[in-house]
Specification:
Elements lengths: L3 E5 L3 H12 L3 E5 L10 E2 L8 E4 L3 H7 L8 E4 L5 H6 L4 E2 L1 E3 L20 E4 L4 H9 L3 E4 L2 H26 L10 H6 L7 H10 L1 H20 L3 H12 L1
Parallel strand pairs: 1-2, 1-4, 2-3, 4-5, 5-6, 8-9
Antiparallel strand pairs: 7-8
Helix pairs in contact: 5-8
Length: 240
């Protein structure tokens, strides 16, 4: 019998996992009202008892769904934060988060190669979860939820809020042909939606807030004082 997985949330992340697992012989089913059907996965109207359940919804939806999920198998997740789910998850839940994604969204942009070569964080070892990660093409790494979420504030959420804030500031500016490649690169993340990022920022604001203030202090020093130290540190980090 092939391994089985039920994916709740079949957008970019869940759909990409589904494609990868289907290619490795898994039976894939999913629950997602926004996806009408699939040529490789079984659409369900509601979750059912399954040997593996993968939560791939937005964080706030996952936090609401997780306490009510009942399955004899194991439940794991794709969400950008781990502790909010760990706090409400049952004993058969293992929080997880792959370091993969795209500024694109939706099942239409799902690809079987999204997780190839990526690190997939999990809070503890479970062979069933390990097989899912391997068959998605990723490599697992165990980390506690608090350490993971603190790091993501710096490496994921801070870049997102900086890109979004600059795009919001420039919204009413008439840039015309003055918008070059550098600006477009910096604003790549500005396409991301509030539906996804609003709950993440709300859950992790206490950790993220001091980092935003730290960046603001460096900006003020660069404009009002001597910017050489900031450029030297930035160049050294980029070379690393």
């Amino acid at each position: 019998m092939p391994p089985r997985v039920l994916i709740i949330g079949f957008g970019l992340m869940g759909g990409s996992a589904g494609r990868a697992l289907h290619a490795r012989g898994w039976h894939v089913s999913f629950v997602d009202d926004a996806v009408p059907s699939s040529d490789y996965a079984e659409k369900l109207d509601a979750p059912r008892d399954e040997e593996m359940v993968l939560l791939a919804t937005h964080l706030d939806v996952a936090v609401k769904l997780l306490p009510a999920l009942r399955t004899s198998g194991v439940i794991t997740s794709l969400c950008s934060l781990m502790k909010p789910l760990r706090d409400v998850g049952p004993s058969n839940f293992i929080a997880g988060h792959p370091m993969a994604g795209s500024h694109l969204s939706g099942n239409v942009n799902a690809t079987a190669t999204l997780y190839e070569g990526k690190t997939w964080f999990v809070e503890s070892h479970d062979e069933r979860v390990e097989q899912l990660i391997r068959d998605c093409g990723a490599t697992s790494r165990i980390v506690d939820a608090e350490t993971h979420d603190a790091a993501m504030a710096l490496t994921s959420q801070l870049p997102q809020v900086l890109s979004t804030a600059l795009a919001a500031y420039l919204h009413d500016k008439n840039l015309g042909d003055f918008a070059g490649a550098g600006l477009r690169d910096f604003l790549r993340l500005a396409e991301m939606s509030h539906d996804m990022w609003g709950p993440i920022l709300a859950e992790n604001r206490e950790t993220l807030g001091p980092h935003v203030e730290g960046v603001a202090a460096i900006l003020r020093e660069m404009i009002e004082g001597d910017p050489r130290d900031a450029f030297a540190k930035a160049n050294a980090l980029f070379r690393r």
